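Section 5.1 Outputs to date
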Amino acid sequence: MKMTLGAHFLRCSARNVLSVPGCKTVNIRGHRRQHWTTFRNITSTTTGGKTAFLLTLPTLSYLSLEAYKKVQSDAVVHALEKAEEVVEQADYLYSCGETEKLYQLLLQYKDSDDAEFLWRLARASRDVSLLAHIAANEKKRLTYEAFEYTKKALEKNDACFAAHKWFAVCLSDIGDYEGVKVKIGNSYIIKKHLERAIELNPKDATSIHILGYWCFAFAELAWYQRKVAAMIFASPPTATYEEALAFFLKAEEVDPNFYSMNLLMLGKTYLAMKDTEKAVHWLSKAKEYPPHTEEDKQVHKEALDLLRKIGA
């Protein structure tokens, strides 16, 4: 399986565990609802965007004003409840692997000012682009579309860790269309956003895993690739297997057995570091991971092949 930063399906998530009948249990970590952002946006909508509207009302009796304020308050509460319902429905569809249904649901909110909708839409757009039946031109369109949603999510809420994480992933994806120079240059930006995502939510194992993957990708660059990178940049990105290992282990510490790819990468990193005993341990765990997705099946196959190769 060829290693590129954005190549494998990455689960972005939250602290709650969502268990749905007929679906596999999925960890949905750290998706703190941005209630204040939603409240601000809805208030702006219900008052026509004029935040000082109440200050310029015609003379009203106290009771009339109180009634008006109650109507406004009820509208805000209703809208908040509706937003919460949509997010829960979106997470339900994600847990069941209903990729295209999820995309169509969230596409209705593409003009939203809520980062919680936007990063989920970015993830859904990217997931659709990875489906086997998607044509190359449509895949490219969806890839760039996903990136635009992550940009907007960050503009609306720079404190949303998931927006930073998916910005990094989607920026890596568009690098496949932009050429080597752009892709290497974007690597610095990708790392910065992954570090910011982890700073905002240290308990999100997938952000930590992706940063480990970033380190592994640069640690395994062949000498001629490093030479090309050095010709393009005075100081190209560098990393070591030791750095990658630290992130993969940390991800496992934060959320044990959360992702088959993290187990595989631990095995591959130990192999690269010539520690066969520990490599066998983690590759065996990757092989035994219950395969829920196509990626899990690929991980199982690669782990099995590597174990056979080293005679384990």
